[in-house]
Q: What sequence folds into this?
C-alpha cells in the first residue's frame, strides 16, 4: 500500500509516511508481542536494593576448610554405609537387602530435599529479580515492556485458587493502552494489595502470639525458643503467601537477611526506646517486667513479619501503601490488659 | 461602555439567594460540580456519557481508589437540582453508542445537566464511624462547545472586539470565507443611521462567515459569538442581530449603526453570556478541559494556533485557586483542573506519553497561571470511548505500532500507521504536520456488552484526580 501524501513533490522522506496497512497482513496485537519481547531491564543488576554495608572479603581458606570437611564427612559416612551394607549381606540376605534399601532411600530423600531447597531458593531469587524489574519499569516510564512483568507475577500465583478472582480481574483490567507504570500499579492494586492485607493479618496474629506466650512463659530460655520458632514460622507463612514457598534453608536465609535488613534500615531501635514506644514510661513502670518483655517480643515479631513482607513482595512498596506498625502496636497494647 | 455596577449587584443578590438553598444541600450531602469544558468537537458529550456509564457500572475503573479498595457501593442517576435545565439524555446517547450500528452523538444544541449519586464507604476509620455509608452527588453539565467562546467577550468592549475580529477575518485562511461579509461592510457607514435591515443583513452575512469557519476542514475554533452558530432558544432574537464594524473616525452619536450594534453587543453580554456563565460555570468545584489535540494536528498549524488562542482566552474567565471549606460551601473556586487530550485511542498507545507532553506544552502558560493561583493542575491523554486497539504491523522490515479499528463510514477494520507525534508543538513546522494522518474511527461494535461499562483509556485516573479526594 502506498502512503497518503498530500504533497506529491516531496521526495526521500526520513520518516515513515502515515499509511493504512493491510489488516489481513502480518499484524500482532500488542500484549502478545510484548510477552515474547526482550528482557525489560537487560541484565538483572544484582542485589541493588539491600547493599551490604561492609563488603565481605572472599576468604578462600574458609571455603577450602568447609568444602574439604564436608567432602570428608560425606566420604566417611558413605564408606561406613557401604561397609555396613556389606556386613549386613554377610549376616543375612534379608538384612542386607533391607539395609541397602534404607541406604538408597536416604540418598534419594537427601537429593529430594536438596533439590527442593534449591528450587525454593531459586524462587526467592526470582522474586528479587521481579522486584528489580518493577523498579526499572517504574523509573523508566516506558511503554510495552511491563506485560512481561505482569505475566511473570501472574504465573507466580497461577496455581493459587484463593487468588483466582484477583488474577481474573487483573487480566480484565489490563489493556493495550496502559503504559508500564500503569501496568505495575495495576498489578499492585488488583493482586498484591489483597495479599498484603492477609499478610498483615498473619503478622498481627503472630506478634500477639509471641507477646502472650512470652508474658506467660516461666523461663527466659523458653522465651528465646518461642520467639525464634514463632518468627521462623511467621516468615515462612508470609513468604508462602507471597508465592515464595521457601524451604528450611530458604526460611533461615530469609530470616537472616531480614535481621540484617532490620539493622540496616534502622527499623529496630534500642530496647529502651521500644519499651517507651510500646508502653509510655509511666505505664511501663507500673507493669511487671514480664509483660513488658512480652510486648517487646511481640513488636520484634511484628517487625520481622513486616520486613518479610517487604522482602517477599514482587514489587517494592511505595510511600502510600507501606504497611505500618501502628495497628499492631495498638493491638499489642491491649495484651497487658488481657494477661493481667 | 462598561457594564453598570448595579446590574452586577442585582445579579449577586440573586445568586446569593440561590445559594442559601444550595448551602443546606451541601451541608447534608457532598455535592460536587464538575465543569466539562471543551471547544466544539472536543468530545464533551461522549465524555459525559462515558463518565456516567462507567460510574453506573464501575467495572472499568481500576485506578479509581474507591473502586479498587472495594468501598464503592453503587451509583445511579438522580433528578438534577436545577429544574429549569433539561436533563442530559444519557439513555439515548448510550443507546446510540452501543447500538449494533453505533454512531457518535450529533452536535449538542442546548444545555443539559446530569446528576450521578455515588454511595460509598469512607476510607478513614473516623469518617466511617461518624457517617457510615456516605454519598456524593456529581453534577455534570453538557452544552454546545461554541458557547464557551463567548466567555472571553465579557472582558471586551464592542470597539475592542470589533477591531480584533476584523483583523482576524482579514488574515488567511479566514479572509476567503469572510470576503462577502467584508465587502458588504465596506459599503456601509458605521456612523450612518441605524437601519434594522442593514443590521440584519450584516449579521446574516457574518453568521454565514462563522458557519463557513466551522465547516472548514481547517478546524478553526475561534468562532465568536457562539450563539450565532448555535442559537439555542434565541433563534431570530434581535440580540443576535449585530456584527463587528470598523470603528468610525469620530465618536458615533446616538441612533447610528455603530451605537445600535454596540447596544446589542452589550445586551448579548449581559443577557446571554453572563447568564450562561452564572448559571453553569460560576459555581464549579472541579474542571476538566477537553482538548482535541489530534484533530488540530490533522488540520494543520493554523488550527493548532487557533485552538491554543481560544483555549487560553476561554480559561481566563474561570476562578481558579485553592478553596477553603467556606469557599467550597459557597461554591467559589475551582481547585483542581485537568487538561485532557481526548481521542487518545486514535494513536498507538506508546505515543500517549508524547501526546500528553505535547498538550503540556500547548497549555503551559495557562497551566502555570492556574497553578500560581493555587489550584492543582494535571495533564493526561485519555479516550472516553476506546474504539481501537494498538497492534504491531510489519512494514518494509520494520515493526510499526499501529491502531486497528473501523474508520467512520466504512465497515471493515483497517490498520493505520498515523505517524509519530512529537512531544512538543514547536517541533511541528509545516513539514512536520504532513507526517501525521489521523482517521476518525467508529465507536466499537457492542461496546457496552457484559454490562461492564464503555471501554475507555484513563477515564479512571481522570476521575481519581477530579473527585478522588471527595471519595476518600
A:
Amino acid at each position: 500500500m502506498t502512503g497518503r501524501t498530500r504533497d506529491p513533490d516531496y521526495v526521500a522522506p526520513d520518516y515513515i509516511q502515515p499509511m493504512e496497512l493491510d489488516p489481513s497482513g502480518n499484524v500482532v496485537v500488542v500484549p502478545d508481542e510484548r510477552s515474547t519481547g526482550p528482557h525489560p531491564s537487560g541484565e538483572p543488576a544484582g542485589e541493588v536494593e539491600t547493599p551490604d554495608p561492609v563488603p565481605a572479603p572472599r576468604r578462600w581458606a574458609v571455603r577450602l576448610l568447609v568444602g574439604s570437611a564436608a567432602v570428608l564427612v560425606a566420604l566417611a559416612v558413605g564408606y561406613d554405609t557401604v561397609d555396613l551394607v556389606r556386613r549386613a549381606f554377610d549376616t543375612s540376605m534379608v538384612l542386607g537387602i533391607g539395609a541397602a534399601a534404607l541406604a538408597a532411600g536416604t540418598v534419594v530423600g537427601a537429593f529430594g530435599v536438596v533439590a527442593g531447597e534449591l528450587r525454593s531458593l531459586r524462587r526467592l531469587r526470582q522474586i528479587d529479580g521481579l522486584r528489580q524489574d518493577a523498579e526499572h519499569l517504574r523509573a523508566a516510564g516506558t511503554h510495552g515492556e511491563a506485560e512481561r512483568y505482569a505475566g511473570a507475577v501472574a504465573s507466580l500465583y497461577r496455581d493459587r485458587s484463593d487468588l483466582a478472582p484477583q488474577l481474573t480481574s487483573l487480566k480484565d483490567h489490563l489493556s493495550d493502552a496502559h503504559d508500564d507504570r500503569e501496568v505495575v500499579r495495576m498489578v499492585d492494586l488488583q493482586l498484591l494489595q489483597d495479599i498484603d492485607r492477609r499478610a498483615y493479618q498473619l503478622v498481627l496474629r503472630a506478634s500477639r502470639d509471641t507477646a502472650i506466650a512470652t508474658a506467660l512463659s516461666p523461663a527466659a530460655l523458653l522465651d528465646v525458643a518461642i520467639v525464634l520458632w514463632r518468627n521462623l514460622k511467621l516468615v515462612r507463612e508470609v513468604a508462602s503467601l507471597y508465592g515464595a514457598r521457601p524451604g528450611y534453608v530458604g526460611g533461615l536465609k530469609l530470616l537472616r537477611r531480614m535481621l540484617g535488613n532490620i539493622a540496616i534500615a534502622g527499623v529496630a531501635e534500642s530496647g529502651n526506646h521500644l519499651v517507651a514506644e510500646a508502653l509510655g514510661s509511666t505505664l511501663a513502670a507500673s507493669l511487671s517486667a514480664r509483660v513488658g518483655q512480652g510486648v517487646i517480643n511481640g513488636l520484634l515479631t511484628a517487625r520481622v513479619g513486616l520486613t518479610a513482607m517487604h522482602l517477599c513482595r514482587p514489587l517494592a512498596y511505595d510511600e502510600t501503601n507501606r504497611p505500618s506498625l501502628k495497628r499492631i502496636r495498638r493491638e499489642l497494647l491491649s495484651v497487658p490488659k488481657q494477661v493481667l | 461602555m462598561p457594564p453598570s455596577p448595579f446590574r452586577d449587584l442585582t445579579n449577586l443578590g440573586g445568586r446569593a439567594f440561590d445559594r442559601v438553598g444550595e448551602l443546606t444541600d451541601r451541608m447534608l450531602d457532598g455535592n460536587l460540580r464538575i465543569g466539562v469544558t471543551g471547544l466544539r468537537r472536543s468530545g464533551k458529550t461522549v465524555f459525559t456519557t462515558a463518565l456516567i456509564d462507567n460510574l453506573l457500572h464501575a467495572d472499568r475503573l481500576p485506578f479509581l481508589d474507591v473502586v479498587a479498595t472495594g468501598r464503592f457501593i453503587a451509583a445511579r442517576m438522580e433528578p438534577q437540582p436545577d429544574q429549569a435545565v433539561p436533563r442530559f439524555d444519557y439513555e439515548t446517547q448510550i443507546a446510540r453508542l452501543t447500538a449494533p450500528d453505533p454512531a457518535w452523538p450529533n452536535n449538542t444544541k442546548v444545555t443539559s445537566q446530569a446528576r450521578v449519586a455515588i454511595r460509598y464507604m469512607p476510607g478513614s476509620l473516623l469518617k466511617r464511624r461518624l457517617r457510615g455509608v456516605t454519598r456524593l452527588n456529581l453534577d455534570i453539565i453538557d452544552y454546545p462547545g461554541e458557547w464557551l467562546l463567548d466567555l472571553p467577550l465579557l472582558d471586551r468592549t464592542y470597539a475592542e472586539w470589533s477591531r480584533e475580529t476584523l483583523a482576524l477575518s482579514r488574515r488567511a485562511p479566514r479572509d476567503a470565507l469572510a470576503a462577502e461579509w467584508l465587502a458588504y461592510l465596506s459599503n456601509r457607514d458605521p456612523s450612518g443611521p441605524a437601519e434594522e435591515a442593514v443590521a440584519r443583513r450584516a449579521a446574516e452575512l457574518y453568521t454565514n462567515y462563522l458557519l463557513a469557519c466551522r465547516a472548514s476542514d481547517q478546524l478553526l475554533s475561534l468562532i465568536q459569538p457562539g450563539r450565532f452558530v448555535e442559537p439555542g432558544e434565541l433563534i431570530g432574537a434581535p440580540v443576535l442581530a449585530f456584527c463587528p464594524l470598523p470603528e468610525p473616525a469620530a465618536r458615533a452619536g446616538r441612533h447610528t449603526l455603530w451605537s445600535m450594534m454596540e447596544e446589542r453587543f452589550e445586551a448579548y453580554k449581559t443577557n446571554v453570556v453572563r447568564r450562561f456563565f452564572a448559571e453553569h460555570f460560576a459555581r464549579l468545584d472541579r474542571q476538566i478541559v477537553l482538548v482535541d489535540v489530534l484533530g488540530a494536528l490533522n488540520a494543520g498549524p493554523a488550527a493548532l494556533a487557533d485552538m491554543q488562542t481560544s483555549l487560553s482566552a476561554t480559561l481566563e474567565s474561570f476562578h481558579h485557586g485553592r478553596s477553603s471549606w467556606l469557599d467550597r460551601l459557597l461554591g467559589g473556586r475551582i481547585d483542581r483542573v485537568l487538561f485532557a487530550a481526548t481521542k487518545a485511542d486514535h494513536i498507538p498507545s506508546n505515543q500517549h506519553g508524547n501526546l500528553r507532553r505535547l498538550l503540556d506544552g500547548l497549555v503551559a502558560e495557562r497551566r502555570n497561571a492556574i497553578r500560581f493561583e493555587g489550584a492543582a493542575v494535571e495533564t493526561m491523554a485519555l479516550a472516553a470511548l476506546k474504539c481501537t486497539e494498538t497492534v504491531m504491523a510489519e512494514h518494509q522490515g520494520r515493526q510499526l505500532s499501529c491502531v486497528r479499528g473501523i474508520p467512520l463510514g466504512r465497515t471493515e477494520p483497517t490498520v493505520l500507521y498515523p505517524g509519530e507525534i512529537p512531544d512538543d508543538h514547536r517541533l511541528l513546522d509545516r513539514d512536520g504536520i504532513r507526517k501525521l494522518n489521523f482517521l476518525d474511527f467508529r465507536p466499537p461494535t457492542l461496546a457496552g456488552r457484559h454490562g461492564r461499562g464503555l471501554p475507555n483509556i484513563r477515564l479512571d485516573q481522570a476521575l481519581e484526580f477530579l473527585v478522588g479526594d471527595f471519595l476518600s
User: Anything to note?
Assistant: Chain B has three domains: 5-148+278-386+448-471, 156-276, 389-434. The interface with chain A takes residues 60, 62-63, 68-69, 344-345, 349-350, 352-353, 383, 386, 389-395, 398, 400-402, 404, 412-420, 434-437, 439, 455, 457-458 of chain B (CB under 8 Å). Residues 5-148+278-386+448-471 of chain B form a domain with the Rossmann fold fold (CATH 3.40.50.300). Residues 315 and 366 of chain B are 8 Å apart (CA to CA).
